[in-house]
Amino acid sequence: MPANHDIKVTFVNTEFNHEKVVKSLSDSDNVTEVVNMVSIKDGMEPWDDRNDFGKLTEAMDRVMPGELESLIEKINTKGGEQITRTQFEELALGLELTNRPFLWVVRQDIAADMDEAYPKGFKDSVHNRGRMVSWAPQQQVLSHPSVACFVSHCGWNSAIEGVSNGVPFVFGLLCDHLFNRSTFVMSGRLD
C-alpha cells in the first residue's frame, strides 16, 4: 500500500478508452489504490465509428464540456478539499513569523468556522502589515511591483497569471495543481 501524502489524483478518460485502460492494468499495478479512475461520455454510441475524426470531434465538443463540468463539480463537492484548522493556523503563524507585509485572500468556504480559525491574537499582531480579504483582483495584485512571492494553490489560471507577471511561487498540492506545477517547471518557467 502506498504512503498517503494527501495527493488526490483523478484520471479521466472517455468511457470507450477507459475500458481499454482498465483491462490493460495488471492486478499487481495497484494503480486504482492511488488513482481514482473515472470515465465520461464522449457523445458517440458504442457502434459509431470512432475513426471518423470529424464525427468524433463534433460529438465530443457537444457532450464532453458538460460531462467534465459535472465531474469537476462532483469532485469539488466531496468536501475533502477544505484545509484543516491546524493547517490554516500554521499558515497564519507562518505569515506572522515572516514579519513581512502580506495580502491573504481567504475564501469563506476554504476552512470551517473561518471567524474562529485565526490563531488568538493573530489579527492584532499583523494589523499594521497584513490584510485578510475574501476576494482580490488577482491579476492586478500579481502585476504590482511590490509582490515578492505568490503563495498559490497553483490552479491553471493562477499559474498562468503568476508566470505572466514573473512572480515566484510557493504552492500547494491539490487536484491538477501538481501537474500544473510540473508543466511549468519542465517548460523552464518555474524552478
Please summarize what this structure is.
The protein has 191 residues and is of the alpha/beta class. The protein folds into 2 domains: 9-76, no CATH class; 85-186, Glycogen Phosphorylase B (Rossmann fold). The protein has helices at residues 15-24, 31-34, 53-76, 85-98, 114-117, 122-126, 138-142, 156-164, 177-186; strands at residues 9-14, 35-40, 102-105, 130-133, 150-152, 169-171.
Show the helix and strand layout.
Elements (H helix, E strand, L loop, with lengths): L8 E6 H10 L6 H4 E6 L12 H24 L8 H14 L3 E4 L8 H4 L4 H5 L3 E4 L4 H5 L7 E3 L3 H9 L4 E3 L5 H10 L5
Parallel strand pairs: 1-2, 3-4, 5-6
Structural description of this entry:
The protein is an alpha/beta fold. The protein is built from 9 helices and 6 strands, in the order βααβααβααβαβαβα. 45% of the residues lie in helices and 14% in strands. β5, α8 (156-164) and β6 form a beta-alpha-beta unit. The protein has 2 domains: 9-76, no CATH class; 85-186, Rossmann fold (3-Layer(aba) Sandwich), CATH 3.40.50. The strands form 3 sheets. A two-stranded parallel sheet has the order 1-2.
Rg result: 21 Å
Major beta sheet, strand line-up: 1-2
* Mean pLDDT over the residues: 77
CATH superfamily of the largest domain: Glycogen Phosphorylase B
Helix content: 40-55%
Architecture of the largest domain in CATH? 3-Layer(aba) Sandwich
**Main sheet characteristics:** 2 strands, parallel
As residue ranges, the low-confidence spans are 1-5
CATH topology of the largest domain: Rossmann fold
Strand content: 5-15%
Number of helices: 9
Tell me the count of domains: 2
Number of strands: 6
**Name of the level-1 CATH class of the largest domain:** Alpha Beta
| Structural class by secondary-structure content | alpha/beta
Keywords: Transferase
Family: Belongs to the UDP-glycosyltransferase family.
Pfam families: UDPGT
